[in-house]
Amino acid sequence: MDTTQILWKIYEYEKEIETFKNKKQFLEANKNLEELSESLNEKKYDIINFKTQLEVDNMKIKRLNHKLKEINFQIKDTNSKLYSGDISNVKKLTKLQKEEADLKKEKEKLENEILELMEDVETNTKELYNSEKIYEQLQTKHKSSEKDNINILNDIKKQIKELENKIEKLKLSLENEILSKYENLKIKKSKPISKLDDDKCTGCHMSIPSIVASKVKKGKEVVYCDNCGRMLYYEQDDN
Ligand SMILES: [Zn+2]
Fold first, then answer.
1. How far away, in angstroms, is 189 Cα from ligand 1 center?
2. CA of 177 to the centre of ligand 1 (A)
3. Which Pfam families does the UniProt entry name for this protein (predicted)?
4. From ligand 1's centre to the CA of 13, what distance in Å?
5. How far is the CA of 224 from the centre of ligand 1 (A)?
6. Are 212 and 223 in contact (CB under 8 A)?
7. Band of pLDDT at residue 238, cut at 50, 70 and 90
């Protein structure tokens, strides 16, 4: 390989490394994983809320059922007093009848409250089940995309390393002077070497004198563009 051919190869590998590094940066920032984490947290919060609500409602139901039992007992007691035939006093009888009516009203109120709570429990149990299912799905998705991400990143690192090794090998066949000139140009220009196309430098688009152009085409020495200072490379047809 001619010197300029080697330099061009180095430049191409460096460009590839640059692309991989950008991709790597993008993957490391991973928006997709971030969004998944957020959804997972939201679902987790929902689950905790449903569980807490269910616990509170179940406790309320238990308490109300206990109260209902007591009232039923009281109703039974009032009832037996009313129909025992022992009470002949009208005032006392009316008082007892009112007591019974109040207790029955209280009973109905309690039963309605319990029913409402039971409906809430049913709805929240369903919601909890759904949230847990979604949470599980999200978790699986998160894990697999995390794994994918790691695999892709490892692959990119491997490819970068391979390209760096190729560059190192190519550099060994170059003279130090040429190499340091290339490195210096790279500091000033992102593209230190440009192709010669139709006797024009593709770096600055200026025409190259035909004598210079033919030197470039021979590839025996490194020729620089008079205008932009870049190294010039001519791609042979058989390449
Ligand atoms: Zn130029």
1. 11
2. 21
3. CT398_CC, Zn_ribbon_9
4. 21
5. 8
6. yes
7. low
Say if CB 236 and CB 212 are below 8 A apart: no
Measured distance CA(209)–CA(127) in Å, rounded: 79
Single pTM value for the model: 0.72
Q: How far is 14 from 4, CA to CA, in rounded Å?
A: 15
Domains in the chain, please, with CATH?
3-172 (1.10.287.1490), 176-233 (no CATH)
Q: Which of 167, 222, 192 is nearest to 14 (CA)?
A: 167
Parallel, antiparallel or unpaired: strands 200-201 and 193-197: antiparallel
Beta bridge partners of 233: 195
Q: Ligand 1 mean position to 178 CA, how many Å? A: 18
What is the reported pLDDT for 239? 45
